[in-house]
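A favour, since you know our structure tokens better than I do. Just paste the record in under my message, thanks.
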Amino acid sequence: MVTNTLPLVKEYWTTPFTMLSLTKRFLMRNLVSISFLLLPILAMTQTWSYYGQDPGGKRYSALQQINVKNVGKLTKAWTFRTGELETYTGTKALDKAAFEATPILIGRTLFFSTPSDRVFAIDAASGQQRWMYDPHVDLHSDYSEISSRGVAAWSAGDTRVSTGAANPDSLRIFVGTIDGRLIALDGHTGQPVPGFGAEGAVNLRAGYSNEVQETSPPAVIGDRVIVGSSIGDNGRFDQPPGVIRAYDVHNGMLVWTWNPIVQDPADSAYATWKGPKAHKTGAANAWSILSTDPARDLVFVPSTSPSPDYYGGERLGSNLYANSLVALRASTGQRVWSFQVVHHDLWDFDIAAQPMLIDFQGKPAVAVGTKMGFIYILDRETGRPLTPVEEHPVPASSIAGEQAWPTQPFPSLPRLGLQSMGPDSAWGPTPDDLAIAKARIAKYRYQGPFTPPSFEGTIMAPGNIGGIHWGGMCYDPANNMLYTNINRLAAVIRMIPRSQVDSLERESTETLRAETGRQRGTPYVMKRDYLFRADANGFLMQTQPPWGTLVGIDMHTGTKKWEVPLGYQMDPAKYPDAKNWGSLNFGGAIVTAGQLVFVAASIDGHLRAFDSRTGRTLWEYALPASAQATPMTYELDGHQYVVIAAGGHGKLHTKQGDYVMAFRLP
């Protein structure tokens, strides 16, 4: 269904000048008048036409009209409301819905998706709706996630600055849905493109699995649109494999597939899956954002843990190409190289962050941020580490049938998040709370970030939500600075023999409360809890703050330049120091040439601007709903805008809504 409230007229490229100086403006105007061929190049530095700003996800903008000197004057430019919450009426969708989208800008139009996969086109200057497409996802079905991080665009010639004539081949908007469809829309009208798949959609579940969901935008490179998938990883050992698929952007025909669970005995990685069931293992999928390098015909796939993610007795070995960054030839699907960040994953240590393509010491590189809080810098063409990586011994498993891999790859760059744990790590706002936290931590096993799951309970620090989570990283190429926001929440993993589950749940309130991974086809059930206590006001953390931070890393020296708390999650009226304690956060940061880092993500529902040189907070705005999303920025008609989706997060119980908000200088 398409609704149209503002006609989408033919769009022409408009010069978006960066407010650097009168001299630079004069130079840019003369460049434009001299050579129209420069238009696409200039526009690429001023717009935000990919989820991560550029195909490689640097999330950097050369704009500096908004800068450290004037950001305090930012004011609301417009607010758009999607009406999303009304679509949940009569369903339980609100409990899982998360508005995680980052809009993209094509011409003068912003395109984005809502948790129910409705796609909107709105005027980037006024926030007025141009069209809306509703794929009518059945929200009565049981989805593990109800979210959509955004859409992708393809245009004829791929200039990213002009949509050309109003025909389906001048601009297509692609969205993947939580019910397993890849949909192509005419960017001008919002109508499904008739020649793509069946009436504008490809059924990604047909002939594969009814468990497939899409929560991240597809990757578009050349005439390929490429998708991973969001599928379960601890329900059973033989979940569907995480096959990567490429389709023709014109007709939706399948071009190639690549399976991270190796099936070909001729592949050298085949022997890294050991046991009679190993090659029937599932998952190792890529649910996060793919990055592309069009000049090299490469797509970078961040793969996840195999199924089940906490027990590997049915899949002994190092398990290549799971938990790896894999570079595929975009035109053919052929694997070019891979680098594994976790051998034989037992911790749900997916690569959740988008791989980030940067230049490092004069070489094309890719930066990989991980839930462990580790950052790897790899040669973009070979996958070889450009910063030192050493294999360090890690603890053995005490679970019968399990064989934890004896070493793991530790990088030399700063290791972020919780990297140690013990009774001295305990925290509580009162002496009684502190004593409870110390006693709880003391009874669990912890021997570093790769301590295997155990019967008595193992602390995972960093936990399965990071370290570096799906919010990812951003990079300032002018100053060679990398920024990321991280979580500091420890998890507790306990393995229970299947025959004992019922009796233990009857005996233990803690065991009953914990999440359950059935891990069918294995001898054990997994229970996952976290180091906090539920109380009348929400939850009370049991480890020392900060619980969420923003970090700046100087890539010249490979050292942490600064780290500051990000947001707050406890009431400052009750706890005066709460603003120094940070917050769990989901959604990423962006960086601009105005020496600013913009980020929301925290539970307290603010959008903030930080000085990228020092980490000092320069501006904050209380949003009408929480924003577990990544902002974006662009310039239009001489004004720089910063835009954020504020809709909250059902599982985090943050304030929910249906807002897209834009800010600019008066």
Q: What stands out?
A: Residues 5-45, 161-165 have pLDDT under 50 and may be disordered. Helices lie at 22-34, 39-46, 84-87, 431-442, 501-507, 509-513. The two ends are 37 Å apart (CA to CA). Residues 22-34 form the longest helix (13 residues).
